Amino acid sequence: MLTVALPKGELLKNSIRLLQAAGLDFSAFLDSGTRQLQIPDPSRQAKGLLVRAQDVPVYVEYGQAQLGIVGYDVLREKQPQVAHLVDLQFGHCRMSVAVKASSSYRSPLDLPTHGRVASKYVNCAREYFHSLDLPVEIVPLYGSVELGPITGMSEAIVDLVSTGRTLHENGLIEIATLYKSTARLIAHPLSYRLNTGNLNDVIGSLREAVLLEV
Fold first, then answer.
1. Which listed site, 11, 41, 46, 163, has its alpha carbon 20 to 30 Å from 177?
2. For residue 213, is pLDDT > 80?
3. At 159, which CATH number?
């Protein structure tokens, strides 16, 4: 049986919609009354797992799911051993450097040497500033990273930005974009090569559904 790992949160609704176009129905996850974390497709040919977005590539990499849908930001941060298959063209956002609007910083290179940058995307932030040859201290935060500059704990943050509203309401501005992110379809490499559970048919249907929406 084919198993698909689906992300909790903002990507879930569009993920389910796209999978329905490919003949897989996991819409029961959208029922506010359900607490199920694993449900079968009505055809009984597949099942869905509902997991935290950061855990999707873990389930796929270790083979508990043959397919998964997850944001590129998670893949970039974790760099799991999975097959990257399709840009699904939803969940558009960007990874940005942001600072207090009242500060004098208007470029990452304006930041002080050995200054602090708060982020939950520690690896991406470290890689980015290393590419600039600017030594900074990366402060791991997993809640509201906007508080870093507000409280003075950090000069900047690296975080995922969608509309920019949260930054604006907290007096922050973007000064650089690391990369843009969208939802991606990933697969377990061996399952993909062996076409486990008619995996290639599902992938083909998803590719067609994405093309129809572009």
1. 11
2. no
3. 3.40.190.10
